[in-house]
Design a protein that fits this description.
By secondary structure, this protein is of the alpha+beta class. The protein is 22% helix and 34% strand. A hairpin with a 2-residue loop joins strand 8 and strand 9.
Length: 144
């Protein structure tokens, strides 16, 4: 049996980081069902402290997810989950963002303008990439 998966990234602020990555990848932040959240809290299945407001919308504090605009059949979901500790060491897993026909250096410039930090350039044979850190320090590589 083959399994499906989602990629989960620890985060100090899941909702702003989900916004950043959705913009970086051209993906969509999953919508929030505010009525479901209110009903769940009112029924006592969750606490008001489990929620927050992001961009004027009631959301679960614990996380935010993004997905490819063509759906989960196209690419796995990425979940940004709230954790209490900040990132302290290099990621053991990171995303390689392939730019397709877009100029990777233009993508790098755009991401840096939106809060990414340049870490280094890499090369192996004919392949090149740029390693960045997102606004919370998670590494990613940008290449063709």
């Amino acid at each position: 049996m083959a399994y499906t998966f989602q990629v989960t990234i620890d985060s100090a602020e899941p909702h702003p980081l989900a916004d950043w990555w959705a913009d970086a990848l051209g993906w969509e932040v999953e919508p929030t069902d505010e009525e479901f959240i209110r009903t769940t809290v009112a029924a006592g299945h969750a606490r008001e402290e489990d929620t927050t407001t992001h961009r004027g919308v009631l959301v679960w504090k614990a996380g935010a997810a993004i997905r490819h605009p063509e759906g989960l059949d196209r690419a796995p979901r990425i979940l940004f989950q709230l954790v209490p500790e900040s990132k302290t060491v290099k990621n053991r897993v990171h995303l390689d963002v392939r730019t397709g026909s877009d100029d990777p250096q233009e993508v790098v410039r755009r991401l840096i303008a939106k809060g990414a930090r340049h870490l280094h350039e890499g090369r192996q044979g004919p392949f090149t990439w740029t390693t960045l850190a997102d606004p919370q320090g998670n590494e990613l590589c940008v290449s063709h």
